[in-house]
Amino acid sequence: LILALTNTTLDNLKKEALLAVSKATTHLNLTAGFIQDTFNNQLPALAAVTNVNVFTPDTTEPTLESYSMDGATSELSLTFSEPVDVSTLNVSGIVLQNSATALNTGGFFRFTSTSSTSSPDDRVIVITASASDANSIRDLANLATNASNTFLSITADTIKDMAANKLTAIATTSARKVRAFPADITRPTVQGYTLDLNTGTLQVTFSETVDLSTVDVSGFSLQSQQISGAATESVSLTASSTATRPVKTT
After folding, report:
1. What pLDDT shows up at residue 250?
2. Separation CA 96–CA 205 (nearest Å)
3. Which pairing describes strands 108-110 and 151-154: parallel, antiparallel, or unpaired?
4. CA distance 64 to 124
5. DSSP state, residue 141
6. H helices of the chain, where?
């Protein structure tokens, strides 16, 4: 009798750290009446749980089957061929690129260790992009702005399956196109600002990277009261004011 295990059963077996990982940890238990012979004689309950005769361990490399990316948060949802061990995740092995066949200058980004996952061991894990990684991706005007310029390559050391098999790598010369790409429809918000009267600068911090070419400086004004009233004094910026991006420091 050969029983074909479903993917769900296989996944549940693989996610158990101490079950079916060797011959010594694999035992079979059958309930009475599990099967009967051609004369309707039922199988009796086993007197003892039986150790496996031959055990073949999992030596198959997991593969990345598909992925989706949230345009607003740069969050990645990765779907693998089998459950993976999230404790082995190395996010720096994941690269977003705007071409399926090459790493173009200004057109790719390698995730850093600041991004992470809180997903459990399973086939699907979600990579939460850190604010710095998400903003670095948005800084690249030709990368991950839509499905047509979102491709992913991944190294073998990025993650392992539950049996410590390395991932099948996806090369930068044959990167995988995104399966789903929900567009960013979230409006940016002002997080804070600083005013320096010595240098004559107003620095505004937003919730995400903004397009400097769209800045209308006449839309900025300073006022003496939070709620404008008859006694409120205010000054608006003029069109001659310039907007620049702060220099990044490491």
Report:
1. 41
2. 26
3. unpaired
4. 10
5. T
6. 7-15, 131-138
